[in-house]
Here is the input.
Amino acid sequence: MTTREYNNCVDQHADGVYRFILKNIKDEHDAQDIVQDAFEKLWINHKKLYPGKAKSYLFTTAYHTMIDHIRKIRHSGSIEDIPEASSETFRDYSDIKEVLDEALAKLTEIQRSVILLRDYEGYSYQEIVEITGLNESQVKVYIYRARVFLKNYIVSPEHVI
Here is the structure.
């Protein structure tokens, strides 16, 4: 991969990688750091990579960097750092984007990742397999379970006015 191809890769994929990471971790600064780390790793290995594989490499690297970041936070955090769950479900209005974001936040980490890769970013099952390191049947099961949960969550009476 040449310098020009690397720069084209940055232009084409920076927003998509950032959206994917931000949807998963919900912190803009951490998402920016993770994306920056992924592009740094891409640059370090740019001479070894074929340009057609750059997008897959980039998302895979960002995904694994995000997982490492989440594990690091879990191990270093204390019980006082965990926010209390709110039992209030009353809303003055219904906004499907907010309901969907809430539902996505309630998914497990792996379910949220595969559903975002498949339905938000448009990756094929095989590409998700390469990014996450899961096998294809696991990816399909996680996507199915996530979709069922999202469907049930979104149409439940307390989320629709």
